[in-house]
Fold this protein.
Amino acid sequence: MTQTFKQNWNEFCDELKSIGDIVSSQDDLTNTDEVEGYRYLTRLLRLSLEMNIEHSNKHNPSFYSLSHETAKIGADNPDNIYLNANIDGSSSYEVFGNIGEVEYLSFGVKENRYSIDGTMNSLGEIDLSEMTVSDDGDFKLVLGQEISANNYLHMPSQANMLIVRQTYSRRVTQKHAVVNITKIGNPADPQLLTNDELNKHLKQSLAFVKGTAQTFLGWVHDFKKNHKNQLPLGDQAFFQAAGGDPKIFYLHGYFEFNSSEYLEIKTDIPSCEFWNFQLENFWMESLDYRHNPIHLNSATAKMNPDNSATIIVSHKNLGIENNLITEGRDNGAMLLRWIGADSCPIPEVSIKKLTDLEVEHA
């Protein structure tokens, strides 16, 4: 190891240590919020290193995931499989595969600026309803400039990321889509990793961790102040600017109630392609959907006779329909999505006593 790189490595470690101040500087955290905050930073670092080192070659692009079961960003959707690829806006790419049993599939060309100003502006979107797919589910999508193709998405010069959203009502059991990406044109010659290149990737990784954590910390503080125990419409343009899908209404909220209470959400259901509701922790990570009932969707929720839905959120499982649990935490974020909806109903949210619920279900 050269002295130059040893210095770079030490700077990386020192900067990583200082990023912990994002958690330690907060004066309103519960013990759970605090310990999950440090875990959140380790998760962001894992994701960032995958993005900036292992999948950094835009001339030989490959898919990775910026949100999955054990590392999560910005109200990740438990019903989704996310794929991300780093791309070069001056190049052209072919995305191809098979749709499997996916229920909603979208492709978004983005300008990822999370490490700079916390934004990820959409530069172009296309979803399955706008694409031609073969009878056996095969598809091909071309990204580029002025290219004649059956399925085509224009790519501006500032584009640097492709996001693929696969949505499933029963994600664990359904056949997942297969999605691949390749650059159109002659492949680039392989290049050995250099000290300067690795140093750049490490700096980019830390900038992403810091920028992402600060961005969504700002969001959750706003939700805590203005959306407590509510699910209002909010500023959709603001949510889209952080990488949201323009076809989705996002209703973000913040819950806070104690173990002797429960949260009741009543909502009409609009005509839409898909909807779901989820619970998150203080850092806007979806709760552990692998093992706990923390979300419902249009296929799994039990509907009322008038096609409305009533969701009961409690600390522990109550053994009743549409019951989601906070895993024992008193506070966190929450989100309701309407995908491709013709309207945007605003739910009625209220805090009630568990004793009242016990009488109701006696």
User: Anything to note?
Assistant: The first strand starts at residue 80 and ends at 86. The chain has a mean pLDDT of 94.
